[in-house]
Amino acid sequence: MNPLLRNSNARSGGFSLVETSIAVGIAATVLMTLVALIPVSLDTLRDAANTTASARIVQSISADYRMRNWEEVVKQQADKSGTDFYFDGQGTRVKSGDSSAIFTARVKVENAPPLPGAPECKSLKSVEIKLTTSADKESAFANPARHVRTQTLVAQTDRTPTAAVVASK
Fold it and tell me: How big is the chain by its Cα radius of gyration, in Å?
């Protein structure tokens, strides 16, 4: 058999060592880049979950205060320290001391600032919600960088006058 024919047939059937080395180098570079992105994507996923749960918590508390009897809202205004509520990672309310509690929300009720061009309104209250994931909630609520603060307005919608209005007549 002719040696030139045998060499050409064997050579056309596979890759050379140089081609294989280049392909392995490219594959390793791509895989290392993808592996390096995993921690960043996990942090982004955790932040997105916390943002979603925070929005759910604020919405839940706001709706709760809008549905409350006006007497309860005025009564809570007297408690200057605020009321703490606890939530799990999904934004569902849990009891104090529950091991699944991740978020703490401190809610304070105050008189709402007067609307532009209007006198002070006794039937409008400001509900301030501070939200943190810190285990040391007192220092977190004292430091604005460690909690999220939102505010909503609650208006008296029932026709029943408050106890303070009845007592002043």
Answer: 31
Task: Tell me 88's DSSP state.
Answer: -
Side chain identity, residue 75: K
Please say if the pLDDT value at position 62 is more than 70: yes
pLDDT for res 159: 62
Spell out the residues 6+ positions from residue 118 whose beta carbon is closer than 8 angstroms to its own: none
Place of tokens 């209007």: 118
Mean pLDDT of 30-50: 94
Q: Specify burial of residue 147 (Cβ count, 10 A radius: 0-12, 13-18, 19+).
A: buried
Would you call 102 helix, strand, or coil by DSSP? Answer: coil
β-pair partners for 128:
108, 151
> How many H-runs (helices) and E-runs (strands) does the chain carry?
5, 5
- For the entire predicted model, the pTM comes to 0.71
Cα 21 from Cα 13, distance rounded (Å): 17
Distance in angstroms (rounded) separating the CA atoms of residues 159 and 137: 38
Hey, what are 41's tokens? 């994507």
